[in-house]
Specification:
The chain is of the alpha/beta class. It has 14 helices and 8 strands. It has a single domain, classed as TIM Barrel, CATH 3.20.20. 42% of the residues lie in helices and 11% in strands. Strands 1-2-3-4-5-6-7-8 form an 8-stranded parallel β-barrel. Helix 2 links the parallel strand 2 and strand 3. The longest helix has 16 residues. It is globular, with a radius of gyration of 20 Å. The two termini are 36 Å apart.
């Protein structure tokens, strides 16, 4: 069974701690054995990373870390030190050490350093980032270090937004990163529609290690994707990719309870590689997350919720709202909130570093 996990890497409103704990405990028996906390809305991990967490927020992290331990789930935190590689001097190192120590005190098993969503058009980008990771490794006592490159996909949209990637960037990282540091990869696209074994094998050769697959499904942040509820089961992930990745992490949707439906189908995909039907798996997963009547209603509305787009539903919005108001379940509340436009994201909410 592949090591599966959740990585909160979405833009927009972060989940509540209650929902976060529910999702983690629900998925733990299904093979989801790690959880990385890194929502873009937590500024203490991004723009304000130099500022230490206040005690109330720190207490919430400690409580969640304990819940993960009790569920035998490895807990990690993803730190995005904004443009750290542009000025990695003594003062900045001291701030970074303080931050690492505070995060470790919460009880994390993994520390992930993210350099995504930052400018990267500099010839020596890889050596600078390797230097930082070597420093983090020297200061950290966690069981696992992981790293997200600036160019974490072959998708050329990254070059358009963050500048042209340096030549042989991945190869340089592969040669020089400590062998024990794991590397995230989202695939041929930022939001890959499918993964092939050959592609992942090629990336593993460049990185000189199997990547952690950062799967940007069912995430639905952004002005376009927030128009859809991604509740259909996973497809385009063949069973033979397992031997070419070290772990498989999914970036969940803005709706925590609805995210459980596709998450369960991924576990089913790995557990039953020769007998997987994604629509059948979707229906089965929905019936496990909600009651049978609710699951049947979701199945009948799958095209409207998953594929049509909120702005194109028009008069169906009220009909759907009335129907789901009859179910007493958090997932129904998430559908209603989505129909009411509460999950919409604008471009300003997706502002990148």
């Amino acid at each position: 069974m592949q090591s599966l996990g959740i990585i909160e890497g979405y833009f927009g409103q972060a989940w509540s701690w209650r929902d976060r704990e529910y999702v983690m405990e629900f998925l733990a028996p299904e093979g989801f054995d790690f959880y990385i906390y890194a929502p873009k809305a937590d500024l203490y991990l991004r723009r304000d990373w130099r500022t230490l967490y206040p005690e109330p927020e720190l207490a919430r992290l400690r409580t969640f870390a304990e819940a993960c331990r009790n569920a035998h789930v490895r807990f990690g935190i993803g730190l995005s030190p904004y443009k750290l590689y542009k000025n990695f001097d003594g003062a900045t190192k001291n701030i970074l050490v303080e931050k690492i120590e505070q995060l470790q005190d919460t009880g994390i098993n993994e520390l992930a350093i993210f350099f995504d969503d930052m400018p990267g058009d500099m010839a020596d980008l890889a050596p600078r980032q390797v230097e930082i990771m070597d420093f983090v490794a020297s200061q950290s006592s966690v069981n696992q270090l992981s790293f997200c490159p600036t160019y974490y996909s072959n998708d050329r949209v990254l070059d358009r937004v963050f500048g042209s990637r340096p030549a042989s960037y991945l190869e340089s990282l592969g040669r020089n990163l400590d062998d024990n540091i794991e590397v995230f990869w989202t695939g041929e696209e930022v939001c890959s529609r499918e993964y092939s074994a050959q592609h992942l094998k090629d990336i593993a050769e460049k990185l000189q290690r199997k990547p952690i697959l950062w799967d940007n499904y069912p995430v639905n942040d952004g002005p376009v994707k927030s128009q859809y509820l991604h509740i259909r089961g996973f497809s385009g992930r063949s069973g033979d990719i397992a031997e070419h990745v070290c772990r498989h992490a999914i970036n969940p949707a803005l709706q925590p309870h609805l995210s459980l439906i596709p998450a369960l189908t991924l576990a089913s995909r790995y557990a039953h590689p020769g007998a997987y039907s994604y629509l059948e798996a979707t229906c089965d997963a929905a019936s496990r997350v909600v009651n049978q009547a609710f699951a049947q209603k979701i199945a009948s509305d799958l095209i409207a919720l998953n594929d049509t787009g909120l702005d194109r539903l028009e008069e169906r919005v009220e009909t759907l709202r009335e129907a789901y108001s009859g179910f007493d379940h958090p997932a129904a509340q998430e559908i209603i909130a989505w129909l009411d436009g509460q999950w919409r994201l604008s471009g300003s909410e997706m502002e990148i570093d």
